[in-house]
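Lab notebook, bench 4. The sequencing result for the construct came back, and we need a structural model before the next group meeting so we can plan mutations. Quick request posted to the team channel:

Model the 3D structure of this chain.
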Amino acid sequence: MPTQRFFDQVENLPTGTAPISLERDFRDQNASGLIEKRSGDKSLKILVFAGGIPAGAYKLTGNLSRVISLADFSTIEVEADENIRTVRLPDLAGRMVWLALESQAQKTFNCQGENSWEIQLNDWLREGWSGLIEIRLGNCHGFALFWDGKPQENEVLFSTAAGFVTGFDLMKNEPDKLYEVTAFAFVPTSQAYQCVILRRGVTHWSNRVLGRYQELVGQKLLQAMNRELNQAMRPWKWNISFQDNLMVDAHFFPYTQAAAHAYRALFMDMGAQMSFVIGNNLTQRILNEAFEQLRPDECAALQAQRLIPAAFSE
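Done. Here's the predicted structure in token form:
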């Protein structure tokens, strides 16, 4: 990862003269984003916020990122205000930066034009590669999550002068540009990766449950349950939504316990509503059958947080 600022196109927030007040502003506004500091050793120190909560602090030197304490970050002195940058980010952008900082850079390379990029995509697909990529394309900067060689829907994001855009359409519109790519390998013990695998397990489990429920009761009753679930989440301000038979999780949870708390509440509500309509026995059967279809690593992540079928039906 180059020692450049993340998402260069995002407008900086005013820094003022008291760096500690910048951290307080994120907390007070429950905002996601980051604070970057450049100090005399030319490294970049980054503090990442997830909904007002510090997710982690890091020292970035070249492609090497290492964790530092929040106290160390707060006490870092810079020579001038221009060496401090503060930006607010959408949750998806924030959690991708966090995952990059908690992952290990494998290689950095260039792709010249769309054909070269398509060859690289085919290579990842053939290898079944899982990881995170960072892309710099002209005046654009973005990340994409890959799993088993495939880019993950709702996990591809670019920052542009016009704002954030999702998907790879932006690259298709720039067929002759030079793509600067960094590929990252996950660190399985990191909180960022644990949140990824937990999120994948929850969404895959939920989607299978919702699909089976729709087959039994029809679209109208499914939509009624979705409205109830979306309404129940509103006071918590979780960036999660239920649309048809899909759960879309764009929230930035700073650690697995926070994510598990939200998911547990959602499944409790889902299980209760399903039991009311189709009965407890059939609800339990659907939850069990859907759970058994998950990947072993997803099951393990769910079980570690006691997110299991028996917990979500009466």
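The first helix runs from residue 19 to 29.
Will bring this to the meeting.
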